[in-house]
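As promised in the previous annual report, we have extended the structural survey to additional targets. Below is the entry for ABC-2 type transport system permease protein.
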Amino acid sequence: MSQKLFTGTGYLTKLMMRQNRFKLFLWLVGLIAVTLATAVSYPDIYPDEQARAAFVFTMENPAMIAMLGVGYEDYATIGALFAHEMLLFTAIAVAIMNILLVGRSTRADEEDGRVELIRSLPVGRLAYLNAAAIVAVVTNVLVAVLIGTGIILLGIDGMSAEGAYLYGAILGATGLVFAGFTALFSQLSETSRGSTMLSFGTLIAAYLVRASGDVSSEALSLVSPLGWTVRTEVFVENYWWPVYAMLAVAIVLGLVAFYLNAIRDLESGFIPERAGKRNASAFLQTTMGLAFRLQRTNLIAWAIGIFLLSASFGAILGDLEVYFTDNEFVQAFLAESGDTSMMEQFIVLLMAIMALISTVPVVMAVMKLKSEENKHLTENYYSRAVSRSRLLGSYVCLSMIVSFVMQALVAIGLWSVGMVVVEDGIAFDTTFASALVYLPAMWILMGVAVFLIGIAPKATGFVWLYVIYSFVVIYLGGLLEFPEWANNLSAFHHIPQIPTMDMDYMRVLILVVIAIVLTVIGFIGYNRRGIQG
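The corresponding structure token record, generated without further manual editing, is:
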């Protein structure tokens, strides 16, 4: 009987591998390239004992412990410095990859009707979930092996073979834990949106619990899987117990997910959806209102997260001079200027990163139309007196409103908390200007999404590559010494860095014009092409 439950797993695994091969290739290349390129730069960032001593001093600060995790007792090697500063955020990136992969291959496929189609064939009840689990395991094993082997091949002093493979193994194990959470939530929730939100909520909660525990209570930190990640002490003590613990948790989560999948009905969940209102409001009856309602929960969650994140950064503004003045790693990111304070330089970097984070819900808002088309739901619009331009325009307007709201929340969060912790306060108008000046760059990414929806609908996923590329340019471009032409490819690189630079209205106007051109071409293409379904 148990064998029949998994009949057809091999064929479905090949199918999923083929469906996701391009996305997985990009994720693997991105993770490996950024990790190895950053590792190569560390000997130049920390060339002597003085630079390493400054790093140790900075890591003793509670704010840095909350941000990066508990420190090591020994920072004698480049490997220890690299692991402490890069491991946690790389693990978070791997967790995001797994959430998206498993969410797409389980609840999203079920919601789109693919699982029902597969079930009509001679396959086992658990074969689809089993195939998704195998793909996740293979992907995380590749992450562990390729990153570990890559670090060894670099031959950097202090990066031993055991530490290198432990670095890769803890990344893979962290990914498997969140793959397990996503598989579990895919059984509990009735929608892909709900399972994805629960998974990302778990990731955020794990980070916050770990941050609080690392500062105040180790026992609390050990409740979080990310708390185990930072306690491997890679390239120093090389503790393997967190890897074994995570693998055990991943197995338990997987077994529970398999059991729930076996006893529930197709397209059902154990957490029922809240009943809606009997009658729709006047706003909901418009294309704009429906576009917002379909994404309301997601957008509200992003808004809350962005506000809390910017507020948490605002809490450390008062002591930035102590935190970062002697840190060569952070200095490599910050603009070199003798006329600006460390706080102003930090605000420049922070606003760029927060703008990129805010761009995610902005692009998601307009990409929702393509998702609706893939599910053949746009037919419901076009069966009424609704034009293509009106429908696409509703999603574009919503995306622009989201961009303004998100950046306003970034400015409010940073300014409101900064006013309390900074002795002389921070200027309200400067804070808002430094946040809102990134709107044209965000609109260009929105324009790229509209352009692809209209001209090349099958290639809309490329917009996320551009988002990732922009993040790498902003966050690691200076550290990795990218050539100028590579930096110029990112719209965010052309934004005036307020408050360390004056406003460049001509440059901003050019970015706005580019965004308008991309959007208009997208509208023309969308009106002329065939609609799926």
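Residues 1-268 form one domain. The chain has a mean pLDDT of 84. These points will be discussed at the next consortium meeting with the crystallography subgroup.
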